[in-house]
Design goal:
This protein is an alpha+beta fold and 701 residues long. The chain contains 24 helices and 22 strands. It comes from Cryobacterium cheniae.
Length: 701
């Protein structure tokens, strides 16, 4: 017995000696690893360059009272960066208690936690936590640098390097974290961490998370809400609150996974005396009840203003003001953080959307019908209103005929279509050339309908003879006089009167005069200049024609369209924006004579239906347009303050004769005369209008 007891004691002493040796050996290993880690960290670079965070960019319209309202937001990452005073203390305490209790005492690195994580990664290949808040922030900064790259391959290579599973990446993070704490205060690091960290999906930063999950601000978060959001940071996929059907973390079980993590954080806050027992117990008793609030994203959220929004977006992506080349502009756009204040007038835009909805259907049986409205400020080029009869979508799945992502109002390279024939609204450029050559509105012009027009002068392409195939007629059988004055031809839109004028002019010069008003084909091609083009056969964007008519109303000075008034960057500083370029298209005297004739169109001619339905009325000029077979119908005109073009067009496929087609609002061909007065009534009410300049007698007598 004595021998047996003695043997047992010896065995126990032996086991204790073995355990002691093992512990000593482990301690030596850990010490060596710690020493190695410290040496490595000391010798690694510790200067972390912190770039811009990716944020939302917002597009606004400005109301008459000066207030701004949001049209749409754009982002790769839904983030709104905020200051420390805009973040609830509950959030800060929850973050430090749950993620890094020693945050305010360590030098940037939780050395033992990080070392354990690095060893685990080294031997198992698995990622283990233990990183301090500063280390987590470093990792997020490195990932954000990758997100800012425009090239997809470069971005993925960078991302793989920033997130690779290796102890060396962990050591690099440690080194950078130590360096970071030498440059920034703890409070600032915590603020930046809460602004950069992900909260699931495309939600980044505490302000966006508060808005998305609880429809509040970072400053307004309650204690249980703050703890729930911080819980998400630990494992966004596991703890995020926007999947109510989840069986592990959904509405049916009270978002059990998030609540468990939330309550752990609340326990830690109590343990560290960040909250009282009463506050802790009250917060624990509160169920997790998210109020998911989807952010405004993309132009589709702008509703009837979506196509104007799309034009703003195209401007941001394509204009050199936002970057030297496409790559730089794309990189800037990905980073975001811009607040873009546009030229859109909400009052006019509302009327545009209402009158379009009332007068042109989104779809029509066996006809791909389009409706367009564009208004531009005279003398400024500011686009005040823009809409069309379709629902905006860039989603390939939206194939119904009421959807399109094509902007019928703009050029092809601005997200628009190939344009539409303008009909007789184009005739004003022949009138401009006629007057510029010293001719008068009272001259008599051979306007007889015939098929033997002979040779037309064309100084660019040489003399043009179209033979008997060219025999344009007039819209009304009563327009059969042999001679008309340019004034008569303008008032009643007599085709042969304008062909007669063109016969006495140079076709090339007529084209150049149109170009002087900024007129160009929507597809980017050269304007056609044959005799038929005088009657409006070029496909042109409505916005282009609105700007040209604004130029006529502006004493012959045409201003290029602009859609942005000002932009502020992420730091609030004003950024340069594209400016309208204004040029003298024709002399003020010629413009005055054009306006004289075009006012008569409104009071006595083809535009009278629009003129007399406008209230209040101010001096207005205008011109109607109808293409062959009544396929497209137009009304274009202006006061001295606002120019508006409206049209009903055939978008594709087999067209309809608009004079034989009826919408619920009336005949399709007269929809233009219902929409244009609605627009100009609102414009006149708001902006007023002055008398047009008196033309010299030599141009009208």
């Amino acid at each position: 017995m004595t021998t047996e007891l003695s043997g047992r004691k010896t065995a126990r002493r032996s086991r204790r000696r073995v355990r002691a040796r093992v512990l000593i050996a482990l301690g030596v290993v850990v010490a060596l690893l710690a020493t190695t880690a410290i040496v490595v960290v000391v010798n690694l670079p510790d200067d972390l360059s912190i770039g811009r965070l990716s944020q939302k960019s917002n597009i606004y319209a400005t109301s008459s009272d000066g207030s701004s309202y949001l049209l749409a937001s754009f982002y790769d990452q839904n983030r709104v960066e905020v200051g420390s005073d805009a973040i609830s203390p509950f959030v800060k305490d929850a973050a430090t208690s749950g993620e890094d209790p020693g945050f305010f005492t360590h030098g940037g690195v939780n050395i033992w936690g990080s070392l354990t994580g690095a060893v685990t990664t080294l031997f198992t290949g698995e990622v283990r936590g233990g990183s301090s808040i500063t280390q987590q922030y470093v990792k997020n900064v490195l990932v954000q640098k990758c997100e800012a790259l425009a090239d997809d391959d470069e971005r993925m290579t960078c991302y793989d390097a920033a997130t690779e599973t290796s102890p060396w990446r962990k050591l690099k993070e440690m080194s950078l974290a130590v360096g970071l704490e030498k440059k920034y205060s703890k409070d600032d690091i915590l603020r930046q961490y809460l602004n950069i960290t992900g909260f699931g999906g495309s939600v980044y930063g505490i302000e966006a998370a508060a808005s998305y999950y609880f429809n509040t601000t970072a400053a307004g978060l309650t204690l249980p809400q703050a703890a729930s959001l911080v819980a998400i940071v630990n494992n966004p996929v596991k703890f995020q609150l926007d999947e109510p059907e989840s069986t592990t973390n959904g509405a049916a079980n009270g978002y059990a996974a998030n609540k468990e993590r939330r309550d752990y954080i609340l326990d830690e806050m109590l343990k560290r005396e960040k909250i009282s027992t009463a506050d802790h117990d009250a917060a624990i008793s509160v169920p997790v009840e998210p109020t998911i609030t989807e952010p405004s994203t993309g132009c589709r959220t702008a509703g009837g203003s979506a196509y104007f929004c799309d034009l703003v977006l195209q401007t941001l992506r394509n204009d050199p003001a936002f970057g030297a080349d496409a790559d730089e502009r794309l990189a800037n756009f990905r980073l975001g953080g811009y607040n873009v204040y546009t030229t859109l007038d909400p009052d006019l835009q509302r009327v545009a959307e209402e009158t379009m909805a009332e007068n042109v259907p989104q779809t029509f049986e066996e006809w791909d019908v389009g409706g367009v409205i564009t208004s531009v400020g005279v003398g400024t080029g500011r686009v005040l209103a823009m809409t069309q009869n379709k629902d905006y979508s860039q989603d390939p799945a939206d194939t119904a005929p009421n959807f399109t992502g094509i902007n019928y109002n703009t050029d092809l390279d601005q997200g628009g279509s190939n344009g539409f024939q303008t009909g007789s609204t184009y005739k004003v450029f022949t009138l401009a050339e006629w007057l510029s050559r010293g001719n008068s509105l009272a001259d008599s012009v051979n306007s007889r309908e015939r098929d033997d027009w002979g040779t037309f002068e064309d100084s660019c392409n040489g003399p043009q003879d179209y033979g008997e195939a060219f025999a344009p007629g007039n819209d009304r059988s009563s327009d059969d006089d042999s001679y008309y004055t340019p004034l008569e031809s303008t008032i009643d839109s007599i085709n042969t009167g304008f062909i007669g004028m063109a016969k006495e002019l140079d076709l090339c010069d007529i084209r150049k005069t149109a170009e002087a008003f900024g007129v160009h084909r929507a597809d980017g091609g050269a304007l056609e200049q044959g005799a038929s083009s005088v009657l409006g056969t070029n496909e042109i964007a409505p916005l282009t024609m609105a700007a040209a008519y604004a130029g006529i109303a502006n004493n012959g000075v045409t201003c290029t369209p602009v859609v942005i008034d000002r932009i502020t960057g992420p730091d609030g500083a004003e950024l340069p924006v594209p400016q309208s370029s204004c040029t003298q298209s024709v002399s003020p005297e010629v413009a005055a004579a054009m306006s004289y004739a075009m006012e008569r169109v409104m009071t006595d001619g083809s535009g009278a239906s629009s003129y007399y339905d406008t209230d209040p009325r101010v001096p207005m000029i205008g011109k109607t347009g109808t293409t062959d077979e009544n396929t497209d119908t137009w009304m274009a005109g202006a006061s001295t303050k606002v120019a508006t073009v409206v049209g009903v067009v055939n978008v594709s496929g087999e067209p309809e004769d608009q004079r034989e087609t009826y919408f619920d609002s009336g005949k399709a061909a007269t929809a233009r005369h219902r929409m244009w007065p609605a627009m100009m009534s609102a414009a006149n009410e708001k902006y007023g209008g002055d008398e047009f300049m008196e033309p010299p007698r030599s141009l009208i007598r």
